[in-house]
């Protein structure tokens, strides 16, 4: 089977490609970034540089279609936010290959933080009470006696998130795009990743990001098994009759899981499944039963990220940091990624050039061409 994987700038996408290659699939890559990480995965048949979907959606979809037809691709797997652009060409692309995602209208309802929150409430599941803010008038009706979290309806990396802002900060906030306001819930954050088919969860992982790059980008993944979270994923996917990749972020308070948002794409949770997933079963729509309990697995980390962001953690608790680092498995330290540190510098330079050109921070610059807002 020939498989085209897009979104190769993400480390998790590298692991998707590696796991597919290891199981005998012929893997191709396509990216609008010149030097994505996945370009250096050993065994990739061919890599294509394609137009930026944010700048020219028609050209982007045309390029994908041409790659699919010319290389007789059997399956297209989008992984990052380019999935929202590919899903807009779902009907046309589906004439030529199987597309491993849902049509745009269904994905966008999950990507939109407020629409997702309302859907969760409709299903009778647990989420923080939320309010949509589209005008200054909407800010006036927000509760003033509780802590709130405000963030854009479409956002990533925790950008522009305000945690328990004062009334003055809220009043001065410029509403240039829709925001969601949610009750602040004190608890421990967990993230999940799953693949579902027609509402049935085929495989999943759950983890706690013990160390982060910035406010919300995890670089250290402590596997976990939380019953209330597992139950939420099962019920939500069944009610929505979801097919494809899906991820959720939760706050756990007193064993009660409050879902914060949904990302219907790959996340770092795939790292925990890389060497355990059976793609033949998954692509056949069959549930995989032989995944070990997450609580019995060792932690996973992005070693390079841990080194780049170590200072703030070492200053707090050096012994704990060293202990955690030594017991974790570095997902990028693998023979499938030869000379990774050297080659990843090309992507770093690629992103730094973008930082200068588009005048954004490092993480926003790394995804500005595929963001869907």
UniProtKB/TrEMBL annotation:
GO terms for MF: ATP binding; metal ion binding
Domain called ATP-grasp: residue spans: 117-288
Signal peptide: none
InterPro entries linked: ATP-grasp, ATP-grasp_PylC-type
Record has Repeat as a keyword: no
Domain of life: Bacteria
Record key words, sorted: ATP-binding, Nucleotide-binding
Pfam families (UniProt xref): ATP-grasp_3
UniProt keyword Metal-binding present: no
Matching SUPFAM superfamilies: Glutathione synthetase ATP-binding domain-like
Protein name: Predicted ATP-dependent carboligase, ATP-grasp superfamily
Organism: Fluoribacter gormanii
């Amino acid at each position: 089977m020939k498989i085209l994987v897009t979104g190769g700038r993400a480390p998790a996408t590298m692991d998707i490609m590696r796991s597919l290659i290891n199981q005998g699939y012929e893997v191709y890559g396509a990216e609008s970034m010149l030097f994505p990480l996945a370009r250096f995965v050993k065994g990739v048949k061919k890599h294509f540089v394609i137009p930026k979907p944010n700048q020219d959606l028609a050209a982007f979809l045309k390029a994908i279609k041409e790659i699919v037809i010319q290389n007789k691709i059997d399956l297209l797997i989008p992984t990052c936010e380019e999935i929202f652009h590919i899903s807009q060409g779902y009907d046309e692309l589906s004439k030529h290959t199987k597309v491993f995602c849902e049509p745009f209208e269904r994905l966008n309802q999950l990507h939109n933080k407020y629409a997702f929150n309302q859907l969760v409430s409709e299903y009778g599941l647990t989420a923080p009470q939320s309010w949509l803010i589209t005008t200054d008038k909407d800010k006036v009706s927000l509760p003033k006696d509780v802590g709130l979290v405000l963030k854009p309806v479409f956002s990533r990396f925790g950008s522009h998130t305000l945690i328990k802002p004062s009334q003055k900060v809220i009043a001065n906030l410029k509403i240039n795009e829709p925001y969601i306001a949610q009750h602040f819930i004190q608890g421990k954050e967990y993230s999940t990743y799953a693949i579902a088919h027609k509402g049935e969860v085929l495989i999943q992982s759950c983890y706690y990001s013990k160390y982060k790059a910035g406010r919300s980008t995890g670089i250290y993944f402590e596997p976990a098994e939380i019953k209330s979270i597992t139950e939420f994923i099962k019920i939500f996917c069944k009610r929505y009759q979801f097919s494809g990749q899906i991820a959720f972020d939760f706050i756990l308070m007193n064993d009660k899981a409050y879902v914060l948002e949904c990302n219907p794409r790959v996340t770092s949770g795939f790292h925990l499944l890389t060497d355990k997933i059976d793609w033949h079963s998954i692509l056949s729509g069959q549930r995989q039963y032989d995944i070990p309990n997450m609580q019995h697995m060792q932690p996973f980390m992005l070693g390079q990220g841990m080194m780049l962001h170590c200072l703030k953690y070492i200053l707090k608790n050096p012994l704990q940091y060293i202990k955690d680092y030594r017991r974790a498995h570095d997902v990028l330290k693998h023979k499938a990624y030869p000379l990774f540190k050297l080659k990843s510098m090309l992507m770093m330079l690629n992103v730094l050039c973008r930082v200068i050109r588009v005048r954004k921070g490092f993480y926003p610059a790394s995804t500005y061409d595929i963001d869907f807002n």
